[in-house]
Write a structure and sequence with these properties.
Layout (H helix, E strand, L loop, with lengths): L3 H8 L6 H6 L4 E4 L12 E5 L2 E7 L5 E5 L13 E2 L4 E2 L6 E2 L5 E3 L17 E2 L1 E4 L2 E4 L14 H4 L5 E8 L3 H8 L25 H6 L4 E7 L2 E11 L2 E10 L3 E3 L7 E8 L5 E8 L7 H8 L27 H6 L8 H11 L16 H18 L18 E5 L4 H8 L9
Antiparallel strand pairs: 1-11, 2-3, 3-4, 4-9, 5-6, 6-7, 7-8, 10-11, 12-18, 13-14, 14-15, 15-16, 15-19, 16-17, 17-18
The structure holds FE2/S2 (inorganic) cluster and fe (ii) ion.
The site of FE2/S2 (inorganic) cluster has 9 residues, from loops.
């Protein structure tokens, strides 16, 4: 459980909150390049860490991310004209470039130098690894982009998707590092009917539904092993990587593999990014076809939006007959299942009311690591990982071994957990 105070500390991410400051020390995945597909295309709304922003791609292809409201009298730049290397407010024509400089003020006399005194808040943005990243922290502390393996492979080897979740970021992230729920929420009543999703073997998942969890802190966050007993002196170890601030890399059987990032829109909403990649070859039609079924990640979305089709309004289209006969939850896709339970907890769960057991160890580790990093930052200690992009060069792992000790597993199979892409 968390005290009310710690829960607020962990979940509030707006300007000048300690956790919000921690997030503002990292480059954050914020958009897909397809949202602003070409120079001078229409601007889009972006809400990030409780701030209303507008993003545009200027004439040179540079991404601009600026505060939503024009500093003249506050009209939204969402309605703006994106033209000739800047965004122009349609109320009185003031124009700003991607650095936030006011480059034209046609409503003032030509001899006025007023425009040189006006700026709009602008955040650096860059396109890399199939994602548009935004940095919202102090300019003099601009960090390195994390060298996550999925972001380093050629575009053809990767797919990225994004959708919205109606909860605080922590609730979603906690689901990613909660190995035991896979044996229930995502299971089939008859494990042999479970489709092969290449992430976990259904028979092993069913064999031991109370995995033992062991976590180690690392430079990038922490990793944990979930140990399931699958025979006499034989164990399945699923190692999940949890990388600051909120990336996961999930244990897998074969590539393509991936993970997620949980990026706060504000305290009550989150954008989830899902990454899947193969380090050595382009993704095939069949790799991509799996992603379109909505059975895993991403969920099916309402056309033209990032809002999932199965949502709270329609009870995630739960099928009670399916639940009785076939699947544990009766809900179609793995992410639909996750969102159903996580959104049912309310936007910010009151963690004074929870009762954590030994299977919740990784969740405790994640909270402790995030809260500690935010407290350190309050004391002036910058997060190490933000300035050491190379520490992100790791993989998750799934291995069956006659070893019951996590440190020994790491010693024996540690090289399998290193990214191989240059
Ligand atoms: S409100 Fe934007 S130019 Fe006047
Ligand atoms: Fe899940």
């Amino acid at each position: 459980m968390l005290t009310q105070e710690d829960n607020e500390f962990a979940c509030r991410v707006g300007p000048r909150t300690p956790m919000g400051e921690l997030f503002r020390r990292f480059w954050l995945p914020a958009m897909l390049p397809s949202e602003v597909p070409e120079p001078d295309c229409p601007p889009v709304r972006l809400r990030l860490l409780g701030e209303d922003l507008v993003a545009f791609r200027d004439t040179n292809g540079q991404i601009g991310v600026v505060e939503a409201h024009c500093p003249h009298r506050g009209a939204s730049l969402f309605f703006g004209r994106n033209e000739e290397c800047g965004i122009r407010c349609v109320y009185h024509g003031w124009k700003f470039d991607s650095t936030g400089a006011c480059v034209d003020m046609p409503s003032e006399p030509a001899e006025s130098n007023f425009k040189s005194k006006v700026r709009i808040t602008a955040y650096p943005a860059r396109e890399h690894g199939g994602v548009i990243w935004v940095y919202m922290g102090p300019p003099e502390l601009e960090p390195e982009v994390p060298q996550l393996e999925w972001s380093l492979v050629p575009d053809s080897h990767r797919t990225v998707s994004k959708w919205y979740q109606e909860t605080n970021y922590l609730q979603g992230y906690e689901g990613d590092i909660d190995s035991s729920h896979a044996s229930f929420l995502h299971s089939y009543l008859d494990p042999s009917r479970s489709p092969d999703d290449r992430t976990i073997r259904a028979d092993l998942k069913a064999m031991d539904r109370a995995p033992k969890l062991i976590a180690n802190d690392t430079d990038y966050g922490f990793r944990y092993g979930a140990r399931r007993r699958i025979g006499d002196d034989l164990y399945n170890w699923r190692v999940t990587q949890a990388l600051l601030p909120t990336y996961s890399l999930i244990g897998f059987l074969d590539f393509p593999a991936g993970g997620r990032a949980w990026i706060p829109i504000d305290d009550n909403r989150t954008m989830t990014f899902y990454f899947s990649y193969h380090p050595d070859r382009p993704l095939t039609e069949s790799d991509l076809a799996i992603r379109k079924t909505g059975r895993a990640f991403p969920p099916h979305l309402i056309e033209g939006t990032f809002n999932p089709l199965r949502n709270r309004e329609n009870d995630y289209l739960i099928d009670r007959e399916l639940q009785r006969s076939t699947t544990y939850s009766g809900i179609h896709g793995v992410n639909d299942q996750d969102r159903a339970v996580q959104e049912s907890m309310g936007p910010i769960y009151d963690r004074r009311r929870e009762h954590l057991g030994s299977s919740d160890l990784a969740i405790m580790s994640a909270r402790r690591r995030l809260i500690q990093a935010a407290r350190d930052l309050e004391q002036g200690v910058e997060p190490y990982a933000a300035h050491h992009g190379e520490v992100y060069r790791v993989r998750a792992m799934d291995v069956n071994a006659p070893i019951d000790d996590f440190d020994a597993v790491v010693d024996t199979y540690g090289t399998r957990m290193l990214a191989q892409v240059e």
